[in-house]
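Journal club prep — side note

Before the paper discussion, L.F. wants everyone to see what a predicted structure for a comparable chain looks like in C-alpha cell form. Sequence:
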Amino acid sequence: MDRHSIDWHGYIPAITTPFDKSGDLDLTALKGLVDWLLEQGMHGLIVAGTTGEWYSLSSQERRDLFKTVAEQVGGRVPVIAGCSAFTANQAIDNARAAADYKFDGILLTPPPYIVPSDREIVAYYQSVAKESTLPVCVYNWPPGTNVDMGLDLIGQLTEIDKVVALKMSTPDIGGLCELFFELKHKVRMFFFASTRLGVSLARNSGLDGTMGAAAVLGRDHPDMFNAVWAGDYERAEALADRDMRMMRALFTPDLTSQFGSAPAVFKEALRMQGVPAGYPRPPILPLTPDESEKVREVLQDLGLV
C-alpha cells in the first residue's frame, strides 16, 4: 500500500466523543453530531482520536463508537479509526474492531507516556501494521506522546507496508515543509494547513489536506480546500484567516489549549452552536464560566453565535 491506495483528502476532523453530564457514552448525541458534520461537508471523519478522548474509552465503548459512526456515515465519506494505545496488542485489537465495522483506515500515535526510542517506535508500527488489514496513518503528536518524530524516523515508517498517510500535529513549519517535500510522493500528507502557507502548498505543491480537530467552524474548514480546488484562492485565504483567528484566540503555538483541556474547549464551542458534541469525561473537566465566556467571545467575533 502507498498514497495511491487511498483517496483521503481535504478536511478530515477528529470528532468529539459525546458523553452525557454523568460521563456515560451518549450514542444518540453521537448520531446527531455525525449528521451535522456530514451536512457541513466534511471530507472524512476520525473517530476516537485525541479530540475524541480515546484514553478514557473502554474497549467495548470504542467498539460501540466505531459501530455507531460507521452505520451513521453509511460509506458517504472515509472514516478513520483512532487506534492509539499503550501497547501494540491493544492497538491491534482496536484495529481489528475498526475492520469489523468496515472503517477505511486507522490513525496511530507512538505509545504515549513511555517515550519509546526510534527503534521501539518502528517495531511498534511494524507489529500493528502486520496484524491490521487496514491502511495506517502515522500520527505525530508531541504534546501527547513526548516524542517529536523527525524526518529520518518517519522515513523509516513510510517504508512499512500499509503506511499510507501522515498526520503531523506540530508547529515546526520548517520541519514540516522538509518532510512534506521529501515524502509526499510516498504517503498522503496532512498537517495544519488553515493558513496562507497551507493554501499555497495545497494550490501549488499537492498538500493533501488537514486532519483537524472537532470542526468547530463547520463548513469553513472543508470549504477552504474546496475553494483551492475550484481555483478561488482569495476565498480559500479568507477562510484560512478565520481559522487562524480562532486558533490564535484559543490555542498556543504548539496547538494546545490556552486554558482548560482542548476537548472541553471544542465541546463548549460546538454546544454553543447547538451541535450535540457532548460533555468531557473526567479527568477532563468542563470549562469554568470565565473560560466559557472567552469561547463565546471568539464565536461571536466569527459570527457563529
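L.F.'s comment for the group: The chain has a mean pLDDT of 97. Keep this in mind when we get to the figures.
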